[in-house]
Design brief:
The protein has about 210 residues and is of the alpha+beta class. The chain contains six helices and nine strands; from the N terminus they run ααββββαβααββββα. The chain has a five-stranded antiparallel beta sheet with strand order 5-9-8-7-6, covered by helices on one side. A four-stranded antiparallel beta sheet has the order 1-2-3-4, with no helix packed on it.
Length: about 210
């Protein structure tokens, strides 16, 4: 488990690398929109952040005094350092098929797959409701499946097989193969977990009136 100092060191290193690149290059490579001179508008799950070049500090649009979680900052900064726009839509693969992911597989299951099936395995309607609130698009797989564009060039599919009298719940999370050029296997595991836990939180919160 990384320590807070590890996150801060990762943030510092990523900021140094990004500060050396022109703002327009970062804008093009990331797919985010400009929100003013040297300012990126960064939608992520149900939040929108503003990130300023060259310091790459984060501000939550809806709650400017809220501290943006360090894990999210690390993930988003690493995304900004990744490859540019994909040449074409990618092939969907399981986490194990991502190069170098084997070492993190157990952490990925613990952070993302198990919470998904444990929370929604007997309540797929709650999954459907939360996924709709988070902008997921239905896919024709499993008992309930959704595709989420979590970043401009990163999409995930979450597929749920509901429990019944004979079989326990199962869940699958798929990624576009090209994600390996944008995020490390560890970052990808964190990203999947962030998405799942945001869905779980939404499932326990009534929609805004």
């Amino acid at each position: 488990m990384p320590r807070i100092d590890d996150y801060r060191a990762a943030i510092r290193l990523a900021r140094e690398k990004l500060a050396a690149a022109p703002f327009e290059q970062t804008l093009t490579r990331s797919g985010f929109e400009a929100a003013g001179e040297g300012l990126l508008r960064v939608p992520f799950l149900d939040r929108v952040y503003r990130v300023r070049h060259p310091g790459f500090d984060f501000l939550d649009e809806a709650d400017p005094v809220r501290d943006v979680p360090l894990q999210e900052q690390v993930l988003l900064l690493h995304y900004l350092l990744g490859a540019g726009p994909p040449a074409a839509p990618g092939e969907w693969v399981a986490y194990r098929e991502i190069p170098g992911a084997g070492f993190y597989f157990s952490a990925f299951v613990k952070r993302a797959v198990d919470p998904l099936k444990n929370r929604f395995g007997r309540d797929p309607d709650a999954f459907r409701s939360a996924a709709g609130r988070l902008g997921g698009g239905a896919v024709a797989t499993g008992d309930a499946g959704f595709e989420f564009r979590v970043l401009p060039y990163v999409s995930l599919q979450l597929i749920l097989y509901a429990a019944d009298d004979e079989f326990p719940a199962e869940a699958t999370i798929l990624f576009e193969r090209q994600i390996a050029g944008r995020l490390s296997p560890e970052d990808i595991a964190w990203l999947a977990g962030m998405l799942v836990y945001r869905l779980i939180a939404l499932s326990r919160t009534p929609p805004a009136a």
